[in-house]
Each structure stands twice: as C-alpha cells, then as structure tokens.
C-alpha cells in the first residue's frame, strides 16, 4: 500500500510490479487505485510518476464519483425494464409459457420466455442470471469472430483467446501470446469491442504503446480512433450494478 496526497486528500493505492510491463500505469476502479510499476523502478521513480499524474488522478477520481451516480441500474428484471447492450438501453419483455426451458432472444430488445414453474418471487434473480449468461456467450461469439478475421487478414494468431470478468482493464495480452477480453464490452457498441480485440492482437507484434504500435493499429483498423475515443469517454458507464459493482474507469500511463 502507498499514499499520494492531492491537495487535502490522501489517496491510498496498491502497488504492483510486473516484469512483463513495458510502461507504468495507474488504474482507477470503484474502491481501488492500482499503480503498476516496472520491476526496475525504485521509490523515487514511482514517486516521480505519481507526481506527474497527480492532476490526472484527481480528475479520474472525480469522474468516477459522477459516473457511479449516473451509471445504469436495472432495479427490476420485468417487462419494460431497460438492459444496457451494445451502447444503448434495450427494452426487456418477459413472458410466461408452459415449456420446460428459459428461452432468450433479441430483436430490437430482449425477449425472455420464462417457464411457469419459476416462482414470481424468483423472477428477478432468474432473469438477471440468464441474461448475464446470454450476454457472455454473445461476447465470446463476437470476440472469436473478430480474432479469426484479423488472423486471416494479418496473420495475428494468439496462443489462446478468452473472455472473462476482468477486475481492471478491457483486454490484456500476456507474455506468451494469450489474450483476455473483458465481457463487459458487450455494453459498448460492437465496433468498440472490435477495437479492443484488434488492440490486444496488435500487442502480439508490438508490446508497447509507442508510435509504431499506433501505426500498426491504423493498418489493422483504420478508424480505430473513433472507437478508442468512445471508450475513453464512456467506459465508466458500461457497467450495470446488477451484474457487477466493480468497473474499470480509466488508466494513465
């Protein structure tokens, strides 16, 4: 644990060192500020980095407070509720039927056919769990499709690619070429999800975020800047409390 003072406020952070990291980074999430340092960094280098990022950290914490107050909340999973999906709020319709299974479909909104054996008092929890599972499966399908496209066009082949519930970040490319994608990207427009997949695939060739990396990104996805800017502006609002209370808000490098 460490402490950085911003005006009269003391911000407690967790320090993590990584041999795989090529640059220092600060990640701000609800209840946690994490500082990623290089294994070669001494205390003076870390303090200097934090001093340079003091204003950024102050702004990120204030933005988090605002976003937490405004982020999407689904109070009830019933007909008329709104579910965040692909950058907008989609209407939910719940119907009862006599079949044995729970069926979910999407066409201009979510339609959940709920068996009559599901008790009324259990409806919210059952529908929430089933929609979350549906969303995760949709993300996996999309991520695999994007990865195959870039592998075919640019010969960028990860060792593995997996969708998971990440505590921090939207994606990661491990030192062995394994890629991890945050399932909550299902709440962003599809092009934003594609950007994150392309971003992590680009790290198979270039590990840092220098000019060479962004030149490669421009080759992979010429309009990547539009999706990157959308994510920078909206990432703090991508979470619905009913699914999770932890949401990455921003990073500084």
Structural summary, described in words:
By secondary structure, the protein is an alpha/beta fold. The protein folds into two domains: 69 residues, no CATH class; 159 residues, Zincin-like. The strands form three sheets. A five-stranded mixed beta sheet has the order 1-2-4-3-12, covered by helices on one side. Strand 10 and strand 11 form a beta hairpin. Helix 3 crosses helix 4 and helix 4 packs across helix 6. The longest helix is centred in the middle third of the chain and has 32 residues. About 3% of the residues have low confidence.
Topology as a string of helices (H) and strands (E): EEEEHHEEEEHEEEHHHE
Q: Give me the Rg, rounded.
A: 20 Å
Please tally the helical runs, counting DSSP H or I stretches of 4 or more residues: 6
* Major sheet size, sense and barrel closure: 5 strands, mixed
Instruction: For the largest sheet, list the strands in their spatial order.
Output: 1-2-4-3-12
